[in-house]
Amino acid sequence: MSKKEITFIMVKPDAVSDGHSGAILKRIEEEGFKIKGVKMIRISLEQAKKFYEVHSARPFYGELTEFMASGPSVVACLERENAVAHWRKVIGATDPAEAEANTIRKLYARSKGENAVHGSDSPENGVIETAFFFSGSELV
Ligand code: DAT
Ligand code: MG
What we know:
By secondary structure, the chain is of the alpha+beta class.
């Protein structure tokens, strides 16, 4: 039996602005995730730069961090068996043009840069990224 795991996810500013937050939260519940914490926030440019520091040498870093600070995002911590891998499967490839049918990015993303949602890439980062945006008392 595999153990429950947490992942950190975001509904990015494009999907919030395009009115997809509700559909994405519904999909989260349909996929069997427990929502341990959720809130809408406007990420600052400083937070975006720190969150995506691993990509700081990439040519799209400026565009990415400015986009993430451009409007409200929904941030959440989700729990499930294999939460990290399952969420990555549900969201699909980074570029919506390459994402499988019915994945969140295929359904809702605008482009590779404005791609609707984030998901942690490992269980370790699920914990680290959750702690970046949530205090203990904000998680159930
Ligand atoms: P993912 O979000 O699928 O984990 P990633 O970690 O490689 O993808 O990149 C983080 C974000 O950076 C991604 O969601 C969108 C943006 N990004 C990645 N590659 C890009 C590119 N070639 N052009 C523009 N934005 C890009
Ligand atoms: Mg990533």
